[in-house]
Amino acid sequence: xxxxxxxxxxxxxxxxxxxxxxxxxxxxxxxxxxxxxxxxxxxxxxxxxxxxxxxxxxxxxxxxxxxxxxxxxxxxxxxxxxxxx
Length: 85
Prior knowledge:
single chain, 5-stranded mixed β-sheet, 5 strands, 24% helix, globular
């Protein structure tokens, strides 16, 4: 499952305007085909795919039974929403 450019644009628009401290439930409702993980930004040392006022967005590749951060939406199998302090 790749993450499409349209999905990333819609996610970006939502996160850019979000004042909610934990929008994961809303993201799961609006993007039910995507896998979401939430954590604190300090838990992820890789550079984010995109940064927003309250969150960093990372793309996750869990193919081949080993999860890793990716910068390639075509390789993404999920997303990590990391809340910044």
